[in-house]
Design goal:
Helices cover 44% and strands 17% of the residues. It is α/β, with parallel strands linked by helices. The strands form four sheets. Strands 4-3-5-6 form a four-stranded parallel β-sheet. It has a three-stranded mixed β-sheet with strand order 1-2-9, covered by helices on one side. The longest helix has 21 residues, at 207-227.
Amino acid sequence: MRRLQVKSSAGEYQVIVGRGAWRALRQMKGYTSTFVLTEPGLWTKWGRKFLRDTGWQGMRPILVPSGESSKSLTMAGHVASELLDRGADRRSLLVALGGGVVGDLGGFVASTYMRGIDYAQAPTTVLAQVDSSIGGKTAVNIHAMKNLVGTFYAPRVVVSESEVLASLPPRAFRSGLYEAVKHSILSGPVLLKWLEGKIAGLKPGDTAVLETLVARAAAVKVDVVSRDEHEAALRRVLNLGHTFGHALEEATGYRRFLHGEAVAWGMLMVTRLAELSGVLDAADGKRIVRLVRAVGPLPELRSLKEEKVLGLLIRDKKAVGGKIHWVLPEAIGKVRVTPDVPDAIVAKAFHDVQRGVWNG
């Protein structure tokens, strides 16, 4: 197992990665009660192992439907009501066992229930293990606006069990790998080269390789959020590919793309945007494109209306004063955050990737 230390304003916490990580929850003592928030299918597959590893035999989980629709104020209210009905108080612990949706929802509920109770993240997808479970961002969606209402609220611990990744469907598995690719672009040549040698043909059951991948990719997120917990400046680099990605998700009602797939298209678009802006060398651009493409196929873009996607960009939460703060790769391991990108170049970058007239 690998242990990473995250610094936060609420104190330090560990990210524990590897086989047997769930057993670390046995050390979470001193609580009046403990509750697990998860999805039905996930609990059916992994609930018995989770209870055995944690020693919480007989626990009855709080279940929410799978999918983005569960990240809502309505569902947050439902979970809070369930906690109240079951006797949760200010000294209770909530464990979010699931992917990004359960993690974001569970963290949001924990941060607001009785003005804040402790919670732990037990992420079960590649995407959640390398990215969304780390850093204390919690949120729910409002209508079609992703993560519009949320908080910064650090978990007590993150336990990333490697074995659970073996049951991921291929598409969900690839979706998480795109976030690992993002972290390698931010990190530099060492991690990116390692990924280039591993990514093709990687399968959910390759537990040993995935344990290393998650630990190395998660370390990038840990480093960034430890230095910039509340996204004052540095943490913005983690949004590489997300401005286009969120617009793609919103334009399709969150039905066509998994989050990592939308981010993958977004990374291709900002790579093209960086080249058009004259800040990225073509050779580095080709490496980024090859690595993204090596993960696997992506849902098609051609049927999307360009004006709809471009019109949604300004609604990105990172926009300030009507200006989008673009995260552009300058080289492997180096990005810049800038609001000074002309709309015409943004439109061309989207068009070139959508129409396949540019492939790095």
